[in-house]
Amino acid sequence: MTDILLITPPFTQLNTPYPATAYLKGFLNTKNISSFQMDLGLEVILRLFSKNGLQELFEYSAQQNKITSSNAERFFALK
Questions:
Q1: How many whole angstroms separate alpha carbon 34 and alpha carbon 74?
Q2: Of the four, 32, 45, 54, 59, which is 20 to 30 A from 3 by CA?
Q3: Which residue has the higher pLDDT, 34 or 11?
Q4: Alpha helix (H) ranges present in 1-79?
């Protein structure tokens, strides 16, 4: 049998993990069906707020040369 990949789309529920795919994976495990789970919201957050992700974000923003608010200026000052 082919493995099943369960994907939670990014930003489904912002304040807590969305449990649907975890529950489905648990059910499939009880039926001995091989499955994998991915939470793309978590993948995005971990990528963005990693050292490399933040460096890329600041580099891209610096290339755009547009600071649109005093709050943005503060972020650049604290980077």
A1: 48
A2: 45
A3: 34
A4: 20-30, 40-48, 51-64, 70-78
* Residue pLDDT, tens place only, 16-31: 778 899 999 999 999 9
Q: Which amino acid is present at 60?
A: Y
CB 51, CB 19: distance < 8 Å: no
pLDDT at 36: 94
Q: How far apart are CA 1 and CA 21, in angstroms?
A: 20
Contact criterion met (CB below 8 Å) for 11 and 48: no
List, in order, residues 6 or more apart from 38 with CB less than 8 Å away: 5, 6, 7, 8, 21
d(CA 79, CA 28): 45
Q: pLDDT by residue (tens digit) across 61-75?
A: 888 877 678 888 888
